[in-house]
Each structure stands twice: as C-alpha cells, then as structure tokens.
Amino acid sequence: MNYLKNTYDCIVVGAGHAGCEAAVSAARLGAKVLLCTLNIDNIALMPCNPAIGGPAKSTIVREIDALGGVMGEAADATYIQMRMLNSSKGPAVRALRAQSDKKQYMDYMRNVIENNKNIYLRQACITDLIAENGVITGAVDEFGIEYKARTVILTTGTSLCGRIFVGLKSYSAGRLGEMAAIGLSDSLKKLGINIKKLKTGTPPRVDKRTIDYSKMQIQPPDEELYFYSFKPDRPVRPQVPCYLTRTTEETHRIIRENLDKSPMFQGLIEGVGPRYCPSIEDKVVRFAQNPSHHIFVEPEGLGTYEVYIQGFSSSLPADVQVKMLHTLPGLEKAHVIKPAYAVEYDYVPAVQTMHSLMSKNIQGLFFAGQINGTSGYEEAAGQGLIAGINAVNYLNNSEMLELSRSSSYIGTLIDDLVTKDIQDPYRMLTSRSEYRLLLRQDNADARLTEIGRKIGLIDDAQFKVYTEKQQNIEKEMSRLLEHKISATDKVNEILAKYGENMERGMKAAELLKRPNITYKILQEIDETTANLNVARDIYEQVEVLIKYEGYLKR
C-alpha cells in the first residue's frame, strides 16, 4: 500500500553513525530525507566502546568535520575524557581519543536530526527495496507500507540478518535487546547483489560500585585539552579517569578450559571477525606466550554506573564470563550488567560499489558503514557523509564526490573497500595509507574545508575560522624563515637542557628543524616569539611544516 503518499528524495535505512551523517548531510543540502530506524531511542548508539577516535580514526573524525559532518562536534560536546595518544611520536601517528558520555552523545545527535526540518524520523524495519529497470524507486517496511524515493542509502550496521551468540546459545538480533532486520538481504539478492557474513563482538558491562579501583592503574585525562571540531567555541567539560588492569594466568586457564563452549571455536559462526580487535579467548589462544593482556575499564557516562571492559570481548557463556571477570585485579566482586556477546551479520562486499558508494547494479542505491564490510564508528560516519553528499549529487545530476587516496583517510578507506576483496571487518590504520605524513589529524581542515565549502556544508563562521587560521600559519612560517636568533650564553644555557647548542646565530626556522627543538623551546629562548602568543593550533602546524618540509615535498 502507498501510505499517505510517502514521497521523499532520499531514504536512509539505519540511524547509527553512518545513517546519521548520511541523513544530516543530505538534508542540509536540501533533500527531503526519511530516516528509518529499528528503535528510535537508539539513534547514534555506541553499541561497543563509548569512545570516538584513536589512531587513524581521529583523522577521519577531523576530516568529517572539515567536510561539514557532525561527529566531531558531537564528540566535543559530550566527552568525559580527552587524551592525545602517541604524543611523543611523529605527527602522522598522533591521535586524539575522546571517552564519550554515551547517552549525551545520542541525545546530541538526535537533537541535530530533530532540528532539521528536512529529516523525517520513522521507527520502521525496511524489508524490501523497489527498483525498476536497474533504478531504485523506493522501499517497503514490515507492515507493507511503501515509501517512494529516487535514492536509498543502506546503513544497516550489524542488524542485517543479525544473530547474537552467548556460548552455544544464539538468537536473532542485531544488537543486545534489538531485533534483527529480516527480509532486506533477500531483497538485495533479488536485485543481483552478493551477500556475505561477518562477525564482531563486544565486552561485558559491569557496575562500577562493585569495582575496586585501588587495584588498578589510573589513566587520567591530559592536562592540555584538544578538540575534534574546527568550529569555534568548543566546550570545556568535567573529565573523569579510565583505569587499566590485566588478565591473569587464572583468567587464561578458565578460558582454555571452556573453549568447547565457544561458538567461534565450535564452528557455529561462519563470519570472519575483526583482525585488529580479537576476542579475549582469541587472544589467549593466538598469543599463548603472553602471561597477561591489558584490560581498560572505561565509564559509559557521567550519569550511569555502567562501565565498559575494553579488551574483554567474548562469546563464551554468561556464567563463564563472570568467572573470568572475577580473576581480574579490581574486578573480583564485579556485578555484570550486560554480558559480552558475538554478533554475526550480513554485509555487501563493497567491490560491488563505486567510489561514490553507489551500487554498480542499481542506480540511486548507496551503501555506508558496516554493510560495506568496515568496523568502527568513525569509518562508518565517514562513509555515511560521502553517501549522503553523493545521494544529493545523484538527485541533481551533479558530479559525484570521490575523494582520492592522497586527499584523505576517508578516500583511502573507500578506495580500499571498492578495489580490494575485504575478508574481515576493515579498520582504518595509518599503515594503510602511503600518504600518511600528509594525511594528519592536524591538517584535515587545510585538506578538505574548501571541498566542504564548495559542496555547501561549511557555514560562514567555520570558513572564516579556517581562512584566518591558514593566513596566520603562512604569516608565522614567513616570520620564522626570516627571524634570527643569536647564539648568546643565555640561549645556550636553556638549549643545554634539551641536549642542544648553537655555535652561531641562525634563522628560527633552521633551529626548529632540529629533532630536539620544538616551537615551545623557541618561545623559551626567544622573547619575540614568546610575546607573539601564537595559538597552539597555529604553531603546531607551523612546526610540522618546517620540520618535515623535505619529506612533505617528496
């Protein structure tokens, strides 16, 4: 039936991280969007770790922001801890990581969606796609209600024929407490699209009141605060620590003795799991020589007792999980709120998709997120943004946005997906990019803001911040290339603390090229540089550009 003449420009199926970015970008570009989700209370849910960013992923978040997406500003608005990882290493591998308040993040994203007059929310399970002569024309939900649209974006996450495993027990579900999407896979097959299976998993959640943190190593937030978004006026929020504990020999013994109850080891799951995020039983078997493994205890939010046990993903039976947990220092009396589980789901190998994320088989049909074979919120959000933009480009008969490998991690990610036969859930790594020294988190705005502006997703305020920043970088670069620092006794006394010495006066830029010298040291030895009080985001860019000039030119 045609229900109330439901006609839209774009239907987005799924309101996870890919679906939210797809819906918001398409709507901001003028499309009338129907956003369908299995549970309207789970918009932008973090079903696994309550965190945004980390190695390579933080660069994707900054790229999303530079193009006009939402994830960066949502992470900034809801963080409960910010840490810069690999801060002592080179700029290509430095990575911001935000511990997020899970509930606040969902509320923020839902507020963005509900305040966009072009987005129409609907709790519905899409079970069928309608296509005529290889062109998408709409979709149908479980009640037989038909929705017409010239574009459909599938962002189904783990819901597509999802099946949850806890020990040898299993049932149909995409996530714990949420039904699976049944029917859509069959519809895709009828359209000539190949479907395969993947597997992922998540750790248990425990009650923090039953944890003895004194037996763990505290992981405090950084003193220096960084943000994801390039937008002005980022919020300063209260922060809380995470904690580190470790598995013991007793943990490993319990796991080894119960492998016969593991659905993975008993061959009940055919989907391949994520290579870079294995289950705890996988780690114990594959790395038998390791006496222990790191386990991080992370809060899920400021208003909840629920904590996430990172590194303890499992599909062993619930009672075995409790025994395992109780062998971890500090978790001897932990009360489990939610068990760990594995989930197997359908995905569409992205070799059937173009760089625009549109299907090669069906015009107007786009895919983004885990349905393309990826793992991770950030990877999903980046794809969702591109799919939303290109759905509007398709509607307008405009040129598709296809980011190159040299332009971004998002471009690298999509190129890998559509050109390689991915066998396990794809996670973005700095090592996947041959341009990683160019594709840093600190310069995402310089690489992509003008593209976002041209598309129409960057507003005047953000573009003004961007242009002023680039002008200030050029200005300070030019100054350092000309400004001379004298080799005085006082200067050399300070430099000696850092294992450096000046035998002659030299230009500030020449001195900054030395490995041990930072811009902060220049401020310490040079009154002119100190008095300029250059903003951190400016001098950090300047330092990288001067230090790595030779590598960047190559």
TrEMBL record:
Domain MnmG N-terminal: 9-398
Keywords: FAD, Flavoprotein, NAD, tRNA processing
Keyword Signal: no
Domain of life: Bacteria
UniProt-listed SUPFAM superfamilies: FAD/NAD(P)-binding domain
Residues annotated as domain tRNA uridine 5-carboxymethylaminomethyl modification enzyme C-terminal N-terninal subdomain: 460-554
UniProt-listed InterPro entries: FAD/NAD-bd_sf, GIDA_C_N, MnmG, MnmG-rel, MnmG-rel_CS, MnmG_N
Record GO terms (molecular function): flavin adenine dinucleotide binding
Pfam families, per the entry: GIDA, GIDA_C_1st
GO biological process terms held by the UniProt record: tRNA methylation; tRNA wobble uridine modification
Cellular component terms (Gene Ontology): cytoplasm
Required cofactor(s): FAD
Gene3D superfamilies linked to this entry: FAD/NAD(P)-binding domain (3.50.50.60), tRNA uridine 5-carboxymethylaminomethyl modification enzyme MnmG/GidA (1.10.10.1800)
Subunit composition and interactions: Homodimer. Heterotetramer of two MnmE and two MnmG subunits.
UniProt record similarity statement: Belongs to the MnmG family.
Protein name as catalogued: tRNA uridine 5-carboxymethylaminomethyl modification enzyme MnmG
Lineage, broadest ranks: Bacteria, Candidatus Scatenecus
